[in-house]
Structures are given as C-alpha cells and as structure tokens.
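Tokens in:
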C-alpha cells in the first residue's frame, strides 16, 4: 500500500502550499505540482525607456493604478507588431507602480498551463495582495481548446474572476486566432457566423485592446539614444544613425527589439557593462 501511495504521489503530486508573497514582487506559475516560484530579479526595462507607445503606456498605467488602489479595472490585451514592447510594457508598468503600491504582484502564466488557471485563481482569491496575471505571446491554433479555459478567467464561471486579479495578455494577433482558422470556420461550419463568434469572442472579453504598430526611423533612433543615455554609452549622433540604420537593414525590420539588439552590440563594443537604469 505504501508503494502504491508513493507511485500515485509521483503521478499526481500534491499542490505545494502558497508561498510567502512578501518575499518577491513577481512569481512564475508551474504545474505538476502546482506551485508559485518567486522571481527575485525580473528581466525588464525602465518605463521611461519605452518610446513610441505613449498611448498604450498611459492607458495601461492608468488601468493598473486603478487596480492597485482596489478600484475597478479591465483585463487588457496588448496586440500588434512583434518586438514593439508589449511584454516589456506590462513588466515596466508593474515595476513602476510597485514602488508606491507594495501589495501589487505580477504572476506569469504560460499558455500551455491555461487548463490549470482555475486552480491558480483559487490559490490567489483569498490572499491580501493584488495580482496582475500575465500571459505572454498568447495565441491559439487549430484544434486548440485552451482558449475555453481562459474564458472562465475573463468573464465566465459561477465564481467569476477574483476581485484581486486582473489578466494582461500579449499577442501578435488581434483576435488571438490565425486568420485562416477563422476563414476555415466560415467555409466549413453548418452555421458560419456562430462558429466564428465562438472563436473571436475570447478577445471581446478583454476590456482594453491596446494596439502596437511598427515604429518609424525617428522613433527607432530615439529608442537607441535613450538606451545610450540611460547606460552611459557615448556615441555621436552621426555614428549612431549610420550604424543603427545599417543594423536595421541587415535585420530586414525595425522595432524596439531590433533597437535593443543593436544597443547590446554597441555597449559590448564600447566596453560598457549594463546595469539597471532605474
């Protein structure tokens, strides 16, 4: 009997107890067994260094500030061009507000673990902290039913979303589904409109839609100059412009991510070790 019990324990480990939420401001959610892992040092940039996303920044900052004060706030979907700072903005807003709202916590949830989200909410529901539940790079493909688990977090279920939890998700897709998947539903379903509604209704449950669009050349160069100023990297405007444009041309794209990658190369060539600008 003891061996059987041990085998069952290995197959379905018991959930670990809730952590001490005062030991960190951010946590990672894991399953098998269910547990929240503290993140001592979050990888992020300062809010002031996120350029070209002013409207999204101000809107998300205001919404999160309301939530941190215990006021009503919306779930948010940050969608659009890749590499334009969607996930960076979520982490930067949390860091900015945590200074004045000590009870604000960030919990990252992987898309693959969405079926366990109900158990996570039950763990957070009675805790005297405010949680931004963060799901990065969220999207769903063919025959992927994970989105049904997420619907319960956003709007459904008898219990509803806990008052102390808000969900922020990032995606390259506005409706979280591939366009060809939506078109296939229209062409093959008995009732095309109902089939499409079932798929796209998920994104409708986010109260905030914040769009991110490709940056222009001036914004791209401003991002790099901001990084140089924050980290003390000295380079003339003419050299920065020539090098950064050449770097962007070799990548075939221009974005905040490309700007950071060029700056990493520049800082390395200049012999400057990067530190937290905040």
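Residues out:
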């Amino acid at each position: 009997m003891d061996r059987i019990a041990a085998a069952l324990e290995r197959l379905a480990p018991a959930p670990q107890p809730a952590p001490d939420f005062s030991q960190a401001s951010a946590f990672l959610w894991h399953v098998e067994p269910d547990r929240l892992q503290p993140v001592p040092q979050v990888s992020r940039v300062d809010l002031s260094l996120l350029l070209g996303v002013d409207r999204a920044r101000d809107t998300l900052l205001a919404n999160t500030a309301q939530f941190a004060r215990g006021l009503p706030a919306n779930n948010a979907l940050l969608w659009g061009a890749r590499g334009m700072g969607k996930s960076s903005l979520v982490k930067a807003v949390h860091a900015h507000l945590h200074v004045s709202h000590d009870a604000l916590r960030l919990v990252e949830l992987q898309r693959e673990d969405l079926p366990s989200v109900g158990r996570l909410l039950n763990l957070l529901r009675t805790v005297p902290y405010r949680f931004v539940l963060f799901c990065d790079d969220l999207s769903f493909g063919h025959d992927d039913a994970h989105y049904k688990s997420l619907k319960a977090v956003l709007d459904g279920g008898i219990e509803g979303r806990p008052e102390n939890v808000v969900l922020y998700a990032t995606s390259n897709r506005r409706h979280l589904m591939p366009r060809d998947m939506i078109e296939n539903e229209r062409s093959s379903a008995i009732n095309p409109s109902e089939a499409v509604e079932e798929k796209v209704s998920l994104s409708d449950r986010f109260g905030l839609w914040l769009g991110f669009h490709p940056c222009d050349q001036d914004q791209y160069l401003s991002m790099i100059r901001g990084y140089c100023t924050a980290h003390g990297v000295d380079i003339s405007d003419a050299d920065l412009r020539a090098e950064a444009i050449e770097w962007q041309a070799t990548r075939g794209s221009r974005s905040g991510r490309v700007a950071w990658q060029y700056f990493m190369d520049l800082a390395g060539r200049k012999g400057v070790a990067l530190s937290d600008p905040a």
